[in-house]
Specification:
The complex is a heterodimer. By secondary structure, chain A is an all-alpha fold. Chain A contains 6 helices and no strands. In chain B, about 5% of the residues lie in helices and about 45% in strands. The interface between A and B is medium-sized, with 25 and 27 residues.
């Protein structure tokens, strides 16, 4: 960048002051550099924002996948631990079917990871099953709820009532709904 | 033939035709089934037959024993229920009968059912409140649960049959919900029961407020 070769000197005013008009007309090196920095900062900010968004979404997706995997493992463990020919009487309605130590550990891990939102979903599903009189599906659902939240007596009570309604503990052979 | 001779013949035939073992003391296989509800066996009940203790019911509610007596004899049966259960006030009576199996595999056991009704029954409540999220649920005036964000709540209690329960949804903190503080009455039958409470709330719209106008300064020239 170079200054114009010709210096235009305006008519001197009363105070006999000369003003170099070139300074106000052409951008200096500093102002250009500043504009460059501002541009660079804006681009960097946009890229960083995009990166943070992608990172956040990925972390959320990873966490959800992990929770889903743990839940799936717990459900598998529960379904495997159920005997093929259950005892004629319900051994311990407070807890449910027999469990191995490994299953217990999986359940503990699952309990820790279940968020209040997931619990709400499970409760809503249970209420919907009972509301539609689908007792057979409700038995397995409330068995899962009572095993996930053993401190809540209400789920064990509901499970017990459902088993009584379906005559799971009667002397007659159990129906498939009891499993 | 004289009348006396006829009578002697008839009496002799009668005596011969009678079962000679009728007055004989026999051993009878008896199976007693203790139930809390129809078809639901109950363990831990002590059974006494004819004044003699015969044992405790197993997990399926069965007590198997042998008693000695004559056919047609009546034996009183008393049973002591485990805690949380009560027996009917009248003692049961067992009449000894002789059965013969069709396939001749031996005489089947005499079966009798005894009852031990639970003194308390479970009452479980499922609350489904449409537009009623985060509401306290009162059971007989006491706050026992709270509806979740979807308006669902689970609660349970136990009580004697015919107990009345009042479930109330406390809407005091939500004045725009209608109806306010709805109550539902439930009566517990002589069985465990799940009660479903469906309650829909209307939400009154917020009163419309006009935007506050800024005071305008009017220049009077």
């Amino acid at each position: 960048m170079s200054l114009p070769r010709t210096l235009v000197i305006r008519d001197a005013d009363d105070e006999k002051t000369l003003v170099d008009v070139r300074l106000g007309q052409t951008p200096s090196r500093w102002s250009e550099l500043r504009a460059l920095i501002v541009r660079w900062r804006r681009k960097t900010f946009e890229k960083a924002l995009g990166f943070i968004l992608i990172l956040g979404m990925s972390a959320l997706a990873y966490q959800q996948t992990k929770t889903a995997q743990t839940l799936r493992a717990a459900i598998d463990a529960l379904s495997k631990s159920r005997p093929v020919h259950p005892a004629p009487s319900f051994p311990d309605p407070e807890v449910g079917g027999p469990q191995t130590a490994n299953d217990g550990a999986t359940l503990q891990a699952t309990r820790r990871q279940i968020s209040s939102r997931e619990r709400e979903t499970l409760e809503n599903q249970g209420a919907a099953l009972l509301g539609s009189n689908d007792f057979a599906s409700a038995v397995s659902h409330y068995r899962l709820l009572s095993e996930l939240f053993p401190e809540d007596q209400v789920f064990r009570d509901i499970l017990r009532v459902l088993r009584t309604k379906l005559k799971c503990d009667s002397n007659q052979p159990e129906s498939d709904a009891c499993h | 033939m004289s009348l006396t001779a006829w009578l002697v013949i008839v009496l002799t035939i009668e005596l011969l035709s009678c079962d000679p073992t009728t007055n004989e003391t026999k051993s009878f296989a008896v199976t007693l089934i203790v139930e809390s509800d129809p078809g639901v066996g109950l363990g831990g009940a002590r059974v006494v037959v004819g004044g003699e203790p015969v044992g405790e019911s197993d997990s399926t509610g069965r007590v198997q024993t042998r008693v000695f007596g004559r056919v047609g004899q009546r034996l009183s049966i008393e049973h002591e229920c485990p805690s949380g259960h009560e027996a009917p006030p009248e003692p049961a009576t067992l009449r000894l009968r002789e059965f013969r199996a069709i396939d001749a595999s031996g005489s089947p056991a005499v079966e009798m059912t005894l009852t031990c009704r639970p003194t308390k029954r479970i009452a479980a409540f499922i609350v489904r409140a449409k537009n009623g999220s985060d509401l306290p649920v009162l059971l007989d005036g006491q706050s026992v649960a709270r509806t979740n964000a979807s308006g669902v709540a689970h609660l349970s209690t136990s009580g004697r049959p015919d107990t009345e329960y009042v479930i109330e949804l406390d809407t005091r903190d939500h004045p725009r919900l209608s109806p306010q503080r709805p109550k539902h009455l439930f009566v517990l039958p002589d069985a465990d029961e799940i009660f479903i409470l469906d309650q829909a709330f209307d939400v009154e719209p917020r009163p419309w407020r006009s935007a506050r106008r800024r005071p305008r300064i009017i220049k009077i020239e």
